[in-house]
Amino acid sequence: MDQEGVNNSRRRFLAWTTTGVGAIGAGFTAVPFLNYWNPSARAQAAGAPVEQDVSKLQAGQVINMEWRGKPIIVYRRSERHLASLAELEGQLRDPQSQVDQQPDYCRNQYRSISPEIGVLVAICTHLGCSPLYRPELGSVSADWPGGFFCPCHGSKFDVAGRVFKGVPAPTNLEVPPHWFPNENTLIVGEHQEGGAA
Ligand code: FES
Questions:
Q1: Which atom of ligand 1 is found nearest the CA of 129?
Q2: Is 96 within a domain?
């Protein structure tokens, strides 16, 4: 186990309590999460942008949010994750994000504004299950590089939410509109240039 894995084990919590956690059984390491951010009922009803403090988010941790009724996962990638992105391109169905699953400013290798901080809609593009964040090497299969695994039918995505070839999910995971007004704050549901999504 690498150092990241050791640290994660010490902070072990269940990241998801919804779909598939019981079904996948032993062999998976739970991922630590910081909190579940709950916007006000008024904000939810209006579909307003939601703000999140990301200053304490460490590599391998996740923050679960909700925007317009959709589960949003926010996570910090490690140096190893960042290095793996280019290496994986030959195994991916849409490595350059040609399919319109992200704002234009996220049509890059990371599929996000920040290389370190990823922001994704946590809904599998096959039939809508909740993919599980599995950042540790080998935690899904022997050659697993870290990423997202859907327990319903086995779809796999890398740490940028890019779908692997040969799985049921047809497209990359969706990236919601987002921006960072400062290095500690994330806003989901709004573009930097202004205006709600
Ligand atoms: S819903 Fe995710 S693989 Fe089918």
A1: 1
A2: yes
